[in-house]
Amino acid sequence: MDESSFGGCECSEPPATTSEHDDPPGSSSLLQILSENAATTTRTTETCSIDTESVLSRLRAGSTPVSTLRGSRNGGKTAVAEPPTTQSKSSPALPPVVDSPLYGSSPRPSNPRTTEFRERFFPDVSNAEWDDWRWQSRHRIRTLDQFETMLDLSDEEHDALVEGGTMLPVAVSPYYMSLLDPHDPLQPLRKTVVPTTAEFIRTPGEADDPLGEDGHSPVPGLVHRYPDRVLLLPLDFCSTYCRYCTRSRVVGHGEIVPNAQRLEAIFHYLEETTQVRDVLISGGDALALSDEKLDWILGRLRAIPHIEFVRIGTKMPAVLPQRITTELVTMLRKYHPIWMSIHFLHPEECTPESKAACERLADAGIPLGSQTVLLKGVNDNVDTMKQLVHKLLLMRVRPYYLYQCDPISGSSHFRTPVSKGLEIVQGLRGHTTGYAVPTYVIDAPGGGGKIPLQPDCVVGRDGDDLLLKNFEGKTFRYPDPIQG
Ligand code: SF4
Question: Based on the domain organization, do 281 and 405 belong to the same domain?
Fold first, then answer.
């Protein structure tokens, strides 16, 4: 995820247009692999509001596709266009265990939910394949057929998948799909990755680029909003697309590609701009890059003397923990200090696989922080948030930011009142470990940057005493003489 925004950790769809000679030196066949998944995503730039009721009634009547009615970004093509890759549902058992290089001599994490899903939908897939992030990328769930096979779709989900004209493509890694409740469309994880027709609704105050990033981009794929730090977008691909993504105007559209020419223009800008000391590599998901390409980017950044601090934004440990390989962390540790911001949302994401991935990163000396978006019906209560932050600490991830959901187009169904965020922080502060309490922030629309919000703790003054309220709501005095 991105520290410069949220709802966007940074990832992007592998560009279908990327040619091999566009790749930086040392890049592998990953882009080719990813490009297989780019499928048929096409795009236009217009946006529009719609008469939702009219559209839905026509959809259910089997008339004109919604995409042709609303001037969708993808020009009316469905966002879920790949042929099904699902395997037989009938086989009762997994194939014999084949050693999975991901876990080496460590025991392979046991996750009954994932095992049951594999037995049902991928019975012939070996552990080695399932644990291979490239296999997971190639077999992302993207078609209506696949979703219908794996989930009992609600009308709202079905219609959104049929229409496919949402700004953001649809894709879910098989691993993350295994965590979804097949029967409950209101399950928190399912709500975050399966589109519904609520995405078609635009409300006042929403915008495609609410943070004004496009206006702070001196070079394509670089956002320079704060004096000393920049956001570098190497690609716009994500293994799994979050329905509330702040950067949904770009992610998955194949417009930001990791080619050497564009990245060299960014490095040149950074070499010339000596006040920049901090670079966040995000996207899309920065870890959707191959090890070789990420190695090249990090090496180029580390060769710029005034760049001191490099961070990586990702949701991979939550949606595709298989990406965190020994080879990846061995490469990353060459470039210390490297920090990582991980996008976790809900305690059900804290699985044995995810824990193993975070431990591998932490063991490589990479400090881990979580950036969580506050989402209605997903994590908007104290109990859920407390479970999440406790599990994160046990996974060696420090809860860092809690983001108010940005007013991105079509996200009103996810947005809570600000009072809800304050209530959650109030319910955490003093009631659990200080390390477990994230900073609640609003990313100011228009590019104002992050503004922290705190429940009121200073209730007033009585002469030379400050009156303070503690976590139990009791008032205390603190001597704070008014200076003459
Ligand atoms: S879709 Fe999700 S993982 Fe990708 S950039 Fe947006 S928030 Fe991050």
Answer: yes
pLDDT at 211: 82
- Do 439 and 463 lie in one domain? The reply is no
Q: Which of 10, 168, 239, 287 to mutate to test the pocket of ligand 1 (most atoms within 8 A of CB)?
A: 10
Expressed in angstroms and rounded, the spacing between residue 373 Cα and the centre of ligand 1 is: 11
* Ligand 1 atom 7: residue of nearest CA: 8
Of ligand 1's listed atoms, the one at least distance from the Cα of 241 is 1
How high is the pLDDT of residue 165? 62
pLDDT tens-place string over residues 227-239: 999 999 999 999 9
Place of tokens 């298989």: 322
Whether the link from the prior residue into 434 is cis, omega within 30° of 0, is no
Q: Is 334 a catalytic residue?
A: no
- Is 229 one of the annotated active-site residues of the chain? yes
Residue 90's pLDDT band (boundaries 50, 70, 90)? Answer: very low
Q: Say what the pTM is.
A: 0.82
394 and 471 fall within a common domain: no
Please check whether residue 421 lies inside any domain of the structure.
yes
Question: Could you tell me if residue 261 is inside a domain?
Answer: yes
Dihedral, 318, 319, 325, 329 alpha carbons, nearest 10: -50
- Which pLDDT score, from 0 to 100, does residue 43 have? 32
Q: How far is Cα 234 from Cα 221, in angstroms, rounded to an integer?
A: 7
- From the list 376, 373, 425, 417, the residue with the least C-alpha distance to 5 is 373
